[in-house]
Amino acid sequence: MLITAIEPRKKSMSALYIDGEFVMNLDSRTLIENRFDVGREIDDEDLYQIIKLSNERRAKEKALWMISYRDHSKKELKDKIRRTCDEDSAQKAVERMEELGLVNDENYARRYAQQLLFTKHMSKNGAFQSLVQKGIDKELASRILDEITVDSREHIRAVIDKKYKNINDEKIRRRASAALQRLGYRWDEIRSVFEEYTEED
Questions:
Q1: Model's pTM, two decimal places?
Q2: CA neighbor of 143 nearest in space, from 155, 154, 127
Q3: Each residue of 103-147: pLDDT tens digit?
Q4: Spatial CB neighbours of 125, under 8 Å, sequence gap ≥ 6
Q5: Is there a contact between 29 and 2 (Cβ–Cβ < 8 Å)?
Q6: How far apart are alpha carbons 67 and 81 in whole angstroms?
Q7: Could you give the angle at the alpha carbon of 131 between the alpha carbons of 69 and 123, nearest 5°?
């Protein structure tokens, strides 16, 4: 097989033509570094290797771009990279980010737990479920949450005071109750705080 043309494309990609026919778009730097030049003879193994190297570079670049935007757990990062490349390239990219210290599930989980508990006023149970959904190991999520002290009643009051002014209106109370349950609070915890507002009136 003969490379007959390499044409620049958008986003640092180049179109590879073999024997006069377009084959695929590959990462330009990968082609240059591996001396994939017009006129070079290649075989199936060469083509397989250049595709693999191109995918791995693109996956790492995407990983770097994503973590420059915000923190990610390993699972979350891998899932997002896999939307545009193969499983193996995504896994290698995440492993490389971990080696560089740019991805760390424990640090991510600590920051995210603080945000869930003190910004979104979630219950510990709700925060646990959210951490696990992000790919945080259950044991790690439990350990981190056990280290944090929260006052559930205070958090429930914070949600009510911010979003549900007339809590003694039945319709508003039902909406508040549903929202608090979605945040992971048990009905007995919610009802107990509701009773405080009834007493105040």
A1: 0.74
A2: 127
A3: 999 999 999 999 999 999 999 999 999 999 999 999 999 999 999
A4: 184, 185
A5: no
A6: 11
A7: 115
